[in-house]
Design brief:
- This is Oxoglutarate/iron-dependent dioxygenase.
- The chain has about 350 residues and is α+β, with helices and mostly antiparallel strands.
- It has one domain: B-lactam Antibiotic, Isopenicillin N Synthase, Chain (Jelly Rolls).
- Strand 4 and strand 5 form a beta hairpin.
- The chain is globular and about 55 Å long.
């Protein structure tokens, strides 16, 4: 698999609207999915109003007073939703230099002791600000953005099914009832370390696909993707696009044909805003079901993990340590936010933190 890419392809979704150009798009998309794992999408039909409203909200949100942030701190939520300060999350055991608000599709908490523990991940958001007007604006802007990104995710999934020549209903059968959104602020770094960790090397474990809005101007850099040769390739800001990358669950169901590309974010001298939307995977998906559902479409093309420059990246689901996507997701969340694990999931904290996958 020749995946030693040097740049990230741009897929123009407007090509899908004409029978004359749709085959061109599908060919380009197939290449991006099977050879790169990272791509941009342009002409995505997410409204500019939804995007600009969210961009305008970002600095205001992170400028809220410490009390407002603390009242919606992530450690108050068994659903891992809310605010987390710089250094409170780790990747590969190293502190990430970012602060963030995490939101999700607004759903009630329906968990009880008769349900699997991972079902406790589903639940309502924490909405910041004492001012009811500001709180209402935040809910409106974030809610609309999640709704429009959910629709983009479904449109994109239709094209993925066509590009890979697999039934659309099989791909949609993996989707969750809840998708997640992070609003991320990387403060300017005073460190002279040229590879300071904003977020350490990882494969996205929070969803089926990730749709990333790089919300800072083009001169603000930081995102990099790892190619087959072990080279870090810059993913610059391209206006009016989303960066799209494959999540771990999609790598599993495609038998490694469509790999989740390892990526990282470097901290730098300029502050940076970033907004990843994670298209959710249903929590009760088992490794067996994930492996067998699309087996006939991919088994002949499946590739060895040894070809993956990021094969060392921690992934409980990819390596089959835990049987369900929900449990592997809960494990990842607890390992990244051990204070939340200690407060709400003490019975499995030691197991997940020390399982050495």
């Amino acid at each position: 698999m020749a995946s030693d890419f040097q740049s990230i392809p741009v897929i123009d979704l407007a090509l899908a609207k004409s029978p004359a150009t749709r085959p061109i798009l599908l060919q380009q998309l197939h290449h991006a999915l099977t050879r790169v794992g990272f791509l941009y999408v342009s002409n995505h039909d997410v409204s500019q109003e939804a995007i600009s409203d969210l961009k305008q909200l970002l600095p205001q949100l992170f400028e809220l007073d410490p009390r407002s942030k603390d009242e919606v701190n992530l450690h108050n939520s068994p659903h891992f939703l809310g605010y987390s300060q710089v250094g409170s999350e780790t990747t590969a055991g190293v502190e990430d230099k970012r602060e963030q608000f995490e939101f999700a599709t607004e759903l009630p908490n329906t968990w009880d002791a008769d349900k699997p523990l991972y079902e406790r991940l589903k639940g309502p958001n924490q909405w910041p600000s004492h001012d009811p007007v500001i709180r209402s604006v935040i809910r409106s802007v974030v809610g609309r953005y999640i709704e429009e990104m959910t629709q983009l995710g479904e449109r994109f999934l239709q094209l993925v099914a066509e590009a890979l020549e697999i039934p659309t209903d099989k791909l949609f059968s993996f989707l969750s009832d809840q998708h997640r959104l992070k609003l991320v602020h990387y403060p300017a770094s005073e460190s002279i370390d040229p590879v300071g960790q904003g977020v350490g090397p990882h494969k996205d474990s929070s969803g089926w696909w990730t749709f990333l809005l790089q919300a800072s101007p083009p001169h603000v850099k930081g995102l990099q993707a790892l190619n087959k040769n072990g080279e870090w390739i810059h993913v610059p800001v391209l206006q009016n696009t989303f960066v799209v990358n494959i999540g771990q669950a999609f790598e599993v169901v495609t038998h490694g044909v469509c790999k989740a590309t390892t990526h990282r974010v470097l901290s730098g001298p300029l502050e940076r805003y970033s907004v990843p939307f994670f298209q959710g995977v249903r929590r009760n998906l088992t490794k067996e079901e994930a492996w067998e559902t699309l087996q006939e479409y991919f088994i002949a093309e499946s590739t060895s993990p040894a070809l993956d420059a990021g094969a060392h990246i921690d992934s409980a689901f990819l390596r089959g340590k835990y049987d369900t996507w929900g449990e592997s997701q809960l494990r990842t969340k607890i390992r990244s936010h051990q204070d939340v694990g200690h407060k709400f999931y003490a019975e499995v904290l030691d197991q997940y933190v020390n399982d050495d996958v």
